[in-house]
Amino acid sequence: MVPAARVVAVRTATTVVPLPQPLRLGAMTVERREYVGVRVVAETDDGRTVAGESYALTREAPMAEVVDRLVAPHVVGREVVASDGVAARQSVGAAWDAALRGSAIVGRVGLVRRAIGLVDVALWDLAGRLAGRPVWSLLDDGQHLAGSAGPGVGGDRDAPSRAVAGSPRDVSSVAVAVPRPAILVAAYPTPGRTARDVAEEVLAHARAGWPLLKISRSPDRALMRDLLAILRAELPDVTGRPTVAGRSGVVVDVGFGWRDTDEALADLDAWGVTGAAGESAPALAWLEDPLLPEDAAGAARVRDASGLPLSVGDEVTDPEVFARLDAQGALDVPRVDVVAIGGITPADPLVRAWAARGKVVSSHVYPEVSVHLGGAAGIGVETFDRSPAGNPYDPAPLLVRGGPVFDGGHATPPDAPGLGFTLDPDRFDLEAAP
Q1: Which SS3 state, helix, strand or coil, does residue 94 take?
Q2: Total-model pTM
Q3: Which of 71, 89, 261, 317 counts the highest number of beta carbons within 10 A?
């Protein structure tokens, strides 16, 4: 029997990595990336010490302090049981609920929700390590049983484990890691670069096997028009695939950069991508975060007037935002930020519910975590270039050891216990209590 473990400490550490050149993200200019690391330490009944880890962008907010002051006190002392995925969901879910309700007077969404998400991810990593199983396997436990995925969730009927009858343990004994589709953040238009410069960076990644590639929006309309014209003309020949909404082609991330629908449509018209609904293939795989996520009506207007599929979800901490976007028909490709939405506990059933409705689902960064969500067909895993030399946009791949294997535009989750990665101890000092 897998022993239970009781949480004895929650530790945090912060690291900063300067960027080689500033990046423009919507209305923001990013000159450095700051990350917070979290380690949850537990002791088993037989005297072993088990730990789980997580990390996230701070976005320059005091995330370590929020975790230390508002979340950790509600988690320390709680028991994690990982005899199977159902027990793990119950015990980690109880800790999640305690943290949410214990901080409800100042939290529920925003920074506190992100802090809860950081601790929840670390708890799931701990549960997997305690069980000696990968988190994706624990999450799949019991999904073949009617109604076991949770309220309002249909489950993933196509995962390999569905063919096996019996208990969750029977399922885990034959479950295998299945590759998930992946998206590469390929290029940011930065000052001094031409449309051809940026296009060549994207096309190089396409030649390496990535069918779905993302660029960020530049406020330079002429550059965007020329860049998108090049990619629409040349990318299908390089990948051998047409643009398919949510699956292949170019994604443009606006990063909440437009103030309203009129500004959005003026830019899109100048780019030459409006009216795409009447074409044989969409102009973009999707248009991402055009407005503030809370502007569901505005997003719906952008979608209807442009004919472009929309994707929203980066940094969203309130599930009701998704519900409003969905109700307005402005959520073609839901995106989930597993930390921002509160961790694996709320993210996994959300992804499964979308997948059960036939929606293509994407993730926002943290591929080491999101690759575990939603079953075999549950989520598209986002990453930046993971070469040992790093990339100029996001150094996160250099901060972790392990994680999914990326190949041919797919991400395969690890078979290692827990989430299958550790934080670089040279970047995050998590040995001592705060």
Answers
A1: helix
A2: 0.91
A3: 71
